[in-house]
Design a protein that fits this description.
- By secondary structure, the protein is mainly alpha-helical.
- Helices cover 68% and strands 6% of the residues.
- Strands 1-2 form a two-stranded antiparallel sheet.
């Protein structure tokens, strides 16, 4: 009976608080960084690092360390801050510029050396990306590179 009452109270409490929101690991202004967002960024960073350092077995230890997790979180925060600055400054990427950058990616070329919309969509699907999310990511990367060039 006590166990049922305990679960009932915790269940009711979590129901009123709403457990659908992902836990926050950081907050930038009013915008939270969710645990899920950090996990995705961490996985991507680990994948990039594993490709670069496949001969170094000590790298796996570092890739699972709290220090690496903190470095990735710092990168997510810095990226968000810079993108916020860019948005407030009115920085945008034109459709022509986006089209040029995407059409220059060799992975989307067919056997004849031309951009292939079919290969583009297949490549994105293989990475669990939609064209919209990929294009948004490219836009963000272009804006961040502009800011970095300006600061340099």
């Amino acid at each position: 009976g006590l166990i049922i009452l305990t679960f009932a109270f915790f269940g009711v409490d979590s129901y009123f608080r709403g457990t659908s929101a992902a836990p926050e690991v950081a907050k930038i202004g009013d915008a939270p960084v969710s645990e899920q967002e950090l996990a995705v960024a961490l996985r991507k960073a680990q994948d990039r690092m594993r490709e670069q350092a496949s001969q170094n077995p000590q790298m796996n230890t570092y890739l699972n360390s709290p220090e690496f997790r903190r470095a990735v979180l710092d990168d997510v925060i810095q990226r968000r801050l810079l993108l916020g600055y860019a948005a407030n400054s009115g920085m945008v990427v034109s459709a022509d510029e986006l089209r040029t950058v995407i059409s220059d990616i060799q992975a989307f070329y067919d056997e004849d050396g031309h951009f292939s919309p079919t290969r583009y969509e297949q490549s994105l699907r293989a990475q669990n990306l939609t064209p919209e999310s990929f294009e948004n990511q490219i836009k963000q990367d272009l804006i961040l590179s502009r800011i970095q060039r300006a600061l340099a």
